[in-house]
Amino acid sequence: MEEEDTKFELEVENIVDSDDFTIFNQEDLPMGGFQVMEEIRRKGKLCDVTLKVEDQCFTVHRIVLAAVIPYFNAMFTHDMAESKQKEITMQGIEPSALESLINFAYSGKVKIDGANVQSLLVGASFLQLAKVREACADFLKHRLHPHNVLGIRAFADTLACWSLVEATNRYLQKHFVDVSVSEEFLNLSFSDVREIISRDELNVQSEESVFEAVMSWTKRDLDQRGDNLPELLTKVRMPLLTPQYLTDRVATENLIRSSHECRDLLDEAKDYHLMPERRPLLQSFRTRPRCCNDIVGLIYAVGGLTKSVIFSISGDSLSTVEVYDPIVGRWQMAESMSMLRSRVGVVVMKKKLYAIGGYNGLDRLATVEVFDPNSKCWSKVCPMNCKRSAVGAAVLNDHLYVCGGYDGVASLNTVECYNSDTNKWVMVTSMTKHRSAAGVVAFDGHVYAIGGHDGLSIFDSVERYDPTTGQWTLVTPMLSKRCRLGAATLNGKLYVCGGYDGSTFLRTVEVYDPITSRWAFIAPMNVTRSRVALVANMGRLYAIGGYDGVSNLSTVEVYNPDLDQWEFITSMCAHEGGVGVGVIPLP
Questions:
Q1: Where does the chain hold its CATH 1.25.40.420 domain(s)?
Q2: What is the mean pLDDT of the chain?
Q3: CB 3.0–4.6 Å: which of 278, 359, 535, 582 could bond 346 by disulfide?
Q4: pLDDT tens digits, residue range 319-340?
């Protein structure tokens, strides 16, 4: 009796009462009715049409097909010949796919696997079953691979399945280096190769990858493809190749040497390096770095200062690490370092996070530790030759450079270079100025040291290190003096933000264009930030933490270069003040 009462109460919930009428709604009726119709069809009863494809026949109910499948709705409800035929011959769909989609019309379910996904996608497209079609596309999106993505892209294009075409294009761009050595790539048409290598969004560490892809494709069928090489090379951004690579690899290639057009492109690239004063005259898409905004990175905030300051106005050093996932928009705690570190240098090299030097509350540090995101462990590596806090660090050509900083006595001009293969630091040429709290970035084949101070003066000057010559040279100074600034690169330009000019805490932002060798102001941040960290991720700039002249900051804001606009996002949960920041790309 108790069960019956409960059942009665549930049914009453679906009754709508008024003074004049009652509406009862049995919500499971449509699904239950379709199940019964499927059972009737399997018994071969009440069916009123037969679908024939190749040598197979399927008896079905017109009303069910018309209710669920748009193709049959149009066929049976309009004055078409098939609307009255007892047997209809189908073309353009495989028997197994038609059977699965007929079953779907009755049950609302269809099994998608590697063996049937292509025929189902063709059938769903033919029958205009949009949701089944999208489910097949999603199945393929999750199974893209460097060796199948081009084939799936071509297949999706023939069916006008644009969501799948877009997914394959994004995958192709993100994994171009691996795709470029696949058989599918080497078998592409000339027009397809030209279109792909023209894209700004290719994810390549160096333009060398694009050049090598072009040469491999050409040499696969030299007799048929050799004449296409000059036009393909116009799409390779050869001025972005290093002088060594241009000399040792490109200039020695017989196919280049034997073509007047190819040699002209090589000369243009060499002039770009030999005569930097003429770069504004050479400005074109070939001098614009590629940028793949689909590379999602986790942003790690390392060390820095305590969030709540109790005993110290400036805060206490931390070993704390937190990580921001831009997809979910949330900070969460990560594995702590082995040591307390504020004013720490942070870089990412070979997908590992390095914490370099810093201040532990008592002393400046020479120690270095590295975080492996796979093992989620920190481990120590060889220490630097010098103690350094407020240190700048950058990675160029898989070598880690640290520049300047403060050793507890004076600002430094010394520079060290770390090779992870040998686990050794070596001293390289010192900067022209002693720079503490400077911005240091790898950019345009050089290491740039930007602003900073020497204990007496704050600088607007910028110098850069050429690893091939081992020399530092001055370049165009910033528009403002800045120390404790943030610096990062994005889309072939160098950005600096915030800092301190000796009298004012700054929120202004400048951008440097290497083509014109000029700095320009862009939209300022929403708040003043000294000791700010700046990193690029997914085509945006993230300004993280800092000090506004009154308080240490946990806030974060993001710059959109398309809109020239900053907006706040989720604040850090465990830090304020001068964190070091690095971005580790997701696999």
A1: 170-287
A2: 91
A3: 582
A4: 999 999 999 999 999 999 999 9
Residue 490, phi then psi, degrees to nearest 5: -155, 130
For the segment(s) 297-585, the CATH number from 2.170.150.70, 2.40.50.180, 3.40.640.10, 2.120.10.80 is: 2.120.10.80
R_g of the chain computed on alpha carbons:
32
- In angstroms, the CA 85 to CA 424 distance is 82
Query: Would you state the structure tokens that stand for residue 272, as one six-digit string?
Result: 């770009």
DSSP 3-state of 117: helix
Q: What pLDDT band is residue 315 in, cutting at 50, 70 and 90?
A: low
CB–CB of 281/304 below 8 Å?
A: no
* CA–CA gap between residue 71 and residue 128 (Å, rounded): 6
With tokens 């059938």, the residue in question is 123
Question: Alpha helices of 23-141 — where are they, by DSSP H?
Answer: 29-42, 62-68, 70-77, 95-107, 117-127, 130-141
What sections of 279-346 are H helices per DSSP? none
Average pLDDT over residues 343-365: 95
**Architecture category of domain 170-287 in CATH:** Alpha Horseshoe (1.25)
Distance CA 293, CA 203 (A): 9
Structure tokens at 172: 């192709």
CA–CA distance, 475 with 129 (Å, rounded to integer): 61
Q: How many CA atoms lie within 13 A of 443 on its CB side?
A: 28
* Prediction pTM value: 0.73
Q: How many helices (H) and strands (E) does the chain have?
A: 18, 29
Instruction: Indicate the residue type of 413.
Output: N
Fold of 22-143: Potassium Channel Kv1.1; Chain A (3.30.710)
Return d(Cα 567, Cα 575) in angstroms, integer.
Answer: 20
The confidence score (pLDDT) of residue 56 equals 92
All CATH 3.30.710.10 domain ranges in the chain, comma separated: 22-143
Kindly give the pairing relationship between strand 87-89 and strand 49-53: parallel
pLDDT in tens, 479-496: 999 999 999 999 889 999
Record the tokens describing residue 474, joined without a space. Answer: 């001055």
3-state class of 100 per DSSP?
helix
The runs of H, that is alpha helices, within 181-333 are 183-186, 190-197, 208-220, 222-225, 229-233, 243-245, 254-257, 260-274
Across residues 241-269, what is the average pLDDT? 94
Residue 7's Cβ-count burial label (10 Å; 0-12, 13-18, 19+) is exposed
pLDDT the model gives residue 11? 43
Q: Is 439 exposed, middle or buried (0-12, 13-18, 19+ CB in 10 A)?
A: buried
